[in-house]
TrEMBL record:
<dbReference type="InterPro" id="IPR036388">
    <property type="entry name" value="WH-like_DNA-bd_sf"/>
</dbReference>
<protein>
    <recommendedName>
        <fullName>HTH iclR-type domain-containing protein</fullName>
    </recommendedName>
</protein>
<dbReference type="GO" id="GO:0003677">
    <property type="term" value="F:DNA binding"/>
</dbReference>
<dbReference type="InterPro" id="IPR050707">
    <property type="entry name" value="HTH_MetabolicPath_Reg"/>
</dbReference>
<dbReference type="InterPro" id="IPR036390">
    <property type="entry name" value="WH_DNA-bd_sf"/>
</dbReference>
<dbReference type="GO" id="GO:0045892">
    <property type="term" value="P:negative regulation of DNA-templated transcription"/>
</dbReference>
<feature type="compositionally biased region" description="Basic and acidic residues">
    <location>
        <begin position="103"/>
        <end position="112"/>
    </location>
</feature>
<feature type="domain" description="HTH iclR-type">
    <location>
        <begin position="18"/>
        <end position="80"/>
    </location>
</feature>
<dbReference type="InterPro" id="IPR005471">
    <property type="entry name" value="Tscrpt_reg_IclR_N"/>
</dbReference>
<feature type="region of interest" description="Disordered">
    <location>
        <begin position="93"/>
        <end position="112"/>
    </location>
</feature>
<dbReference type="Pfam" id="PF09339">
    <property type="entry name" value="HTH_IclR"/>
</dbReference>
<dbReference type="GO" id="GO:0003700">
    <property type="term" value="F:DNA-binding transcription factor activity"/>
</dbReference>
Length: 112
């Protein structure tokens, strides 16, 4: 088992970083098309964090409607609230990219 101090050293990249927030974001990044549901033990191993730490983070994320527990297998999955947040980001990105197209790849081949 990793000590609490070592746990903090693993994820802390700068003094201005909030370790808990960083860990929660790393936890969310574990989810993918291939891994739609994950158990606390799997999260703990993947993040190299104590199971109790991961369990508290998961409980908070469930309470805030970011994750939800599948009652059939006890694993956790992303809550549809994240889709709503993603759609807001996508809408904003779509507006910004329409008004400020990226410089790279802007010209078609053969165009000045």
């Amino acid at each position: 088992m990793i000590s609490r101090r070592k746990e903090a050293e693993i994820v802390q990249t700068s003094k201005s970083t909030l370790v808990t927030v960083g860990n929660a974001l790393r936890l969310l990044k574990l989810f993918s098309h291939e891994t739609a549901e994950i158990g606390v033990n799997e999260m703990s191993r993947a993040l190299m964090l104590a199971k109790s730490t991961v369990s508290r983070m998961v409980s908070t994320l469930v309470q805030e409607s970011i994750l939800e527990r599948n009652p059939e297998n006890g694993k956790y999955r992303l809550n549809p609230l994240l889709l709503e947040i993603g759609l807001i980001a996508q809408e904003r990105f779509g507006r910004e990219s329409a008004t400020n197209p990226p410089e790279e790849g802007r010209h078609e081949r053969g165009s000045p």
